[in-house]
Amino acid sequence: MKLNFIQYIWLLLAFVVLLPQIQSEVVTFRFPEYDYKETSKNELAFREYESACDQSTRCSIFDGIDKTKCVRECVSPSCYHEIYKFDELEEGEIDVRLNSFRACFMQRLSRNRS
User: Fold this and answer.
1) CA separation for the pair 76, 101 (Å, rounded)
2) Which position among 4, 34, 78, 108 has the lowest Cβ density within 10 Å, counted as fewest Cβ atoms?
3) pLDDT of 31-74, one tens digit each?
């Protein structure tokens, strides 16, 4: 199908008129962000808590994403609620919030140790 000049102009005009409406409907995913410093000490502390929660009777009954959610909530209920509760992880989702969760956990852990 070949467009003539008038059809091309109408198509271009429709595109220009509709584009702002389409762009205004794009939703940006926002969540509380914490700056995570990946050090061996931080990784070790997080892995210790994560491993303990993973093996706990509370979380060991779950598999897949349900287990991941249980472990994260076990590691830090307050950080889980702040970062994940409003929009829970879904199966297959790439977890872009994990580093913020780790940083939140480290911040709360160091605050509790002080």
Assistant:
1) 9
2) 4
3) 778 888 889 999 999 999 999 999 999 999 999 999 999 999 99
